[in-house]
Amino acid sequence: MTQTEPERTVRPDALQRPFTPGDPGNDPELETYPETVHGPVPLELSDRRTAEFVEEWRNASYNCYSSGHKFCREVCPVMQVTRNESWTPTAFHANVVAMEKGELEVADIAADYVNCTQCGACELRCPNTLFTGDFYRFRTRTVDVVKAVRALAVESGVHQPNWRTWNARTDDRTHEPVLGETEISQENVRNWAEGLDIPIGGETVLFVDCEAAFYRTAVPRAVAQILQRAGYEFGLMGEQWCCGGPAAEMGYVDQARRFARHNLDNWRATGTKRVLVLDPHDYISFTEDYPKYFGAEFDIEVVLVVEVLADLLAQGKLTPTVPVNRTITYHDPCRLNKRKGIWEEPRQVLRSIPGLTFHDVDRVTQWSYCSGGGGGLPVEKPELTAAISERRLGHAAELGVDTLVSACPWSERPLSEAGDKRDIDVIDIHEIVAESLGIEVGGSRGAVGDRRCGGCAK
Amino acid sequence: MSYRYSDEHAPPAPQRASEVAVTTHEHVFEVDPRLMERWVLQQTFPNWDTLRIMHARHDHLDWMHAHFAQKTITGSDLIAEIENEA
Amino acid sequence: MWGLREVTALERPPTDLIDRVVERLAGVLRPDQILTAKTDRYNRARVPAPFPVHRWRERVPDLAVLPESTEEVAAVVAIANELKCPVVPRDGGTGLTDGAVPLRGGIVVDVKRMNQIHELDLENRTVTVGTGINMLKLNEVLGKHGLIYPDDPASYPCSLVGGRIGTSGWSLIGARYGHTRDLVLSFDLVLPTGEILHVGDGIGRQISKSSSGYQLKHLFMGHQGTLGIATKATLKLYPKPEAELSPFWAFDDYDAAYRFTGALARAGVATFAGAVLFDEWKVAYLRRDDEAYIPQPADVRALTCAVLYGWEDEVRVGGKRLFRIAKEHGARYLGDEISEGDWAARHDRYATPLHGRTKSGQVVPMSWHCEDAAVNYTRVPAVTKAWHEIVADLRRKTDVFDDWGMFAYTSADTGVDYLTEIDVGIWEQRLDDDAWAMWVRAKRDIAAAALAHGGSISACHGSCREGEVDLVPRELGRGFDVMLGVKRMLDPNNIMNPGKYLLDLAYQGGDLAARLAELRGEA
């Protein structure tokens, strides 16, 4: 029978003392122990694409799977409204491990990966990022894993119906179909700038995302007029196409690269050295996707407008003087706060506006906030986007505010719809700055915004 | 405050911090890269990402203190009080 | 000892039974609450504790359900009991003894949708919640009222109240506020037959101490889901502390840190919420990747930290008492930055796979496995020595295992006993059947060492995993026979989390007394 305590008659050796592995001063005996474990027999996966995918993502996935502590779960916007563990960052990594073991195939898993806004909360909150990501230069990459699985699905012929249509229409019109059944055309991409007298091309161009260029046109109009007020020189792109980011997010990688190539070539053609970006989603495309596609060839400087505004305000080149009598809170756009760590500048900008009562919620609490508007979720599962936005507006309502200020055009449509139910306006940070500078912005704040706030008078 | 590929992929030269670690950016320790050559290879890590993580960690730690208590009392404060009383 | 594996060999409900279960469930749940896809099932088979990945499929349930009320849970369990289909409760799925892991397939009852705050009673200082709520999220709400629910496990940002009940959880600040069993006043529980039982003192929900009748609350906590599913709980609330103090001190060696830790715990300071002893292996381990310890001089070999919570005036007075004790013990204060940062990081530093190293120092992704025991203060050094030797022996054979050092945490305010844990890195990518067998033997040895020193196999996680579970009848003695009797009475069809804690013995014929004697080493 079993002994209560094991009998051990091992001679003293290097393993009986504490040591830090890798220290060159360690006992050389440590190198002499035999390895007696063979490890599981690796499985030969018959599908070449899956095998390559697994090879690329296996360590990243084990880095989640083998920790298994799931600190991502309660910050995940989809999880918070569905409470379904199949749609968590943990599951998204575990599925890859299951594929490595031949237990699951891409067709089994593809539909689950719709349930992600690519907000980045999970990968930031993960201790493998937050506590050791910088140390090892190896962090949790849920967003990349989700994009890679979606790409593998598309390559394998497993499509989500609405994404397929969305990307086909984008491919056809070079912009996303943000106006629903109303088709968008390349000729109209600069219509938002009507009457603003902005040149084409030049060293610095302002890139306007599809949602802002065609739907929430008050945002680019506000940005352009604020910059003009400050004497900041910029032009519009010669021939702007969609940044390609949404296609990349939904797995249509070839299309995304083609669009990126077009935009980079077009910047070159107009001698452009610097791209101003007002939309956080574009900012991600240009600072993460384009560098991956082009490497060092991508020598364009990318500048976020809200950071420029904070700078211009600090330098006294802009001085908001018209009081804006609203009680606000600020919605940290996920792609700024979580994915880029940009949260101070928007608050500096808001604090410069007279008349505002600002009930701020700190950036860490907001890691678990989201509009649900990203990552293609509203295209495929609008009901989840709506639920996530409703939850976000619930947090705002607890503060007793009349206005939620965002800095992301893609968040503003779902947030506005949720805000309408609670009698809360959703306004873009650039719109509110323009108002305080006495600018008659013009353009549209979208259907809900125009009805509630009367748009920005033309 | 702006992104340039060439800036992002040129981290500060590493300084040795211990037998198994180095320092690069201020307040950032990194593993001695020779320990990640066999089983797990390091990822491409632009400077912004390293700094984002380091700053977020500090913000998170502040948040966690505030989550459990309204304020923190420092040990150095108490040591000073004890010495004054002695 | 390996004969027991036959008892727990995989049996699954036949497909036609599952079809009937699904059909009947459709009468009590909406379609979106019944999950049968492969990913739904694979992702409810796991907890953080390592297991050979190539055997994953053995633990996959046949379906999962997402009930939204006590009544829905009761309806599901009643159907399962009628059709004799296994049921496995799953809350956060963060436990380290496989409580939420299906061993016989069946239905996973995932309670995460039951995360409502039903009632906040500011006068009596209680909150009634669905058991699917997470403590951090709950405290975000309570904080607005100046209150806190101080149940603080390492998994605080993600574990759920129901899982804390099912495992009878241990809290890092339990020396000040008590552990889960002290903080949960009462709860609703769905019994294995589908009946609903209210567990706790008094006829209402909010009594903290009664002496009326049998005290059933402890019986229905820590059963690892074998006696039912907690669905709604009433919790005791405290004022959110005004002040926190969390000093860390360094020592030249383990013995000095050990003596100091004991002195702190015995000091009788009312705001004292806990002390933690880091042994020399732990400090060597922290030098791998922890920014606080990489730059420390070589004579920092062992650490003690303490934490105090309360009103600022109380914490200051208590804190000064501890600092005076520190002076007497030659403890070297590590400074405000490390002290505050390390305590705030307490939930985040465990389960990082890249802590793992081969003996030569290469980084490998390892699963964190924490083996814990409850050990009296005077026995902590001996257990520490024995456990390191067990893990060293694993490392002599393979790089699949790594020693991440040991902690000893105060469990109570008097310093009587310590949650003693050894953190073992396990390289799951390389974990084959041979390595798993080595690990199971090591787990058994680890548990045996705790018992040999008069302790308990677990202070914190439970003890129903392969390896350790064989020793439970020895630890509990006649109490294990009572466990079998209770299980048989409450779960006549053995549907509730079958295969755990050797409870199958309650349903088997033959000479039970002989089997138990064998397990206890009395044969």
Automatic annotation (TrEMBL), chain A:
It comes from the Bacteria. Residues 1-11 have a biased composition (Basic and acidic residues). Gene3D superfamilies: Alpha-helical ferredoxin. Keywords: 4Fe-4S, Iron, Iron-sulfur, Metal-binding, Oxidoreductase. One of its GO terms (molecular function) is oxidoreductase activity. PANTHER family: IRON-SULFUR-BINDING OXIDOREDUCTASE FADF-RELATED, IRON-SULFUR-BINDING OXIDOREDUCTASE FADF-RELATED-RELATED. This is 4Fe-4S ferredoxin-type domain-containing protein.
UniProtKB/TrEMBL annotation, chain B:
It comes from Pseudonocardia halophobica. This is Uncharacterized protein.
